[in-house]
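Entry: TRAP transporter TAXI family solute receptor
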Amino acid sequence: MAFSITRRAFSAGVGAAALLAGSGAAFAQQAFFRIGTGGTAGTYYPVGGLIANAISATGSSGVKDLVATAVASNGSVANISAIQSGAGEAGFTQSDVAYWAHSGTGLYEGKPKVEDLRLIATLYPETIHLVARADAGIKSVADLKGKRVSLDEPGSGTIVDARLVLAAYGLSEQDVKAEYLKPGPAGEKVQDNSLDAYFFVGGYPTGAIVELAATNNITLVPITGPEADKLLSEQKFFQADTVPEGTYKNVPETKTISVAAQLVTSAKQADDLIYNITKSLYSEDTQKSLQAGHAKGKLITADNAVKSAGIPFHPGAERYYKETGLLK
């Protein structure tokens, strides 16, 4: 499933003619800028659609006949793989996964580094949700032992963080009855009592959890205590976070942790193209659209764009941030 824009939009340089910044030059034929997002029930997909739509609608690149597309995917790892292979021009990823990919550490230990991975912008915090049935008796992460728990699909950033959280509390996948489901199917299994809990990393409020909480008694399990403090000190891409009361029906304020959502691309993409995309992302019209379209859109600001970088900026994005004084 994809969110496609057929008005003025931006496209990757793959198979395209040279892009002249601010010149009004047009491509000889239509080309595409494919943005890998996540599952349709998560946060990446709707926010990615807003970004594709809003950037396209600004028309500020002066380039015609281009198509921006937000593409549903398995998430961070899958999006980086698509960028690496040329199957996508950009994608959403968690800041931890981007760092591991670029440095060849963590999840990418023993694998080739994704040295061409480049940052366009840090977007917003991504909260680690540990959703549980209210009657499952799960008050802390330690209570997951022996429970039926979904860690999300292989290739997602969520599964990586779920494993880190479990390990911080002395648990592994073998200590739980692990399943590997996206938040939509996981919520359905919680609803019919065939699953006790599931992890999901995404900006709150996320649609799948909103829908689940509207008709079922759920709780968010806090990720706190000395175990969480140690995790925060060891993994610098994690930050303390709080889900406010009322974000999900009948769910009180919950302390947890988060990573950052980032928009990344390849160093192979044209500098002028990425410069224009970055500039349009922070135009007045785009900012209004993002703020109106999703709760996390309010956090997609130029000031936040240069935080929690972890990997090098694409030269085109870096040029914009230096012009605006956000980077020196």
